[in-house]
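Thread: "does anyone have the structure for this chain?"

Original post by V.I.:
We have the sequence but no experimental structure in hand. Need at least a predicted one for the grant figures.
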Amino acid sequence: MKTAQLNDLKSVSEVLYHREHNAIHVLLIEEGRLRTALMQLDQQASDARKDLQQGDAMQRIGADIVWQRWLTRSRRALNMELATVLAQKSNAMVRVRAAFGRKEAINQIMAAAQLEKARKSRRF
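Reply from O.Q.:
Generated one for you, tokens below.
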């Protein structure tokens, strides 16, 4: 294979790898956002439990039941979003590993070609 063709392959493989890597990065940011939202929700639930143990007015008007429904719906929605993102991340990891493997294979082929070229040039 000619050097120009190898350079073209290297450029294409690097672009593909960076595209897949950026896709993972976006998913990691979204995963972090969702995990943070779940932690905040858990903290709010903990704070609310402490308030309810003190027997405040929320219990008397039934707001605690409304709060628990909202909490359950919110947690369920966030967990569904997180599950979707984790599935997307799993698929993206397969693609990024394949892209990285192609990139590294081309780098090794180029290194071997350069060694062969240097070896041949020393003979003459």
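V.I.: this helps a lot. The chain has a mean pLDDT of 89.
O.Q.: and The CA atoms of residues 3 and 113 lie 8 Å apart.
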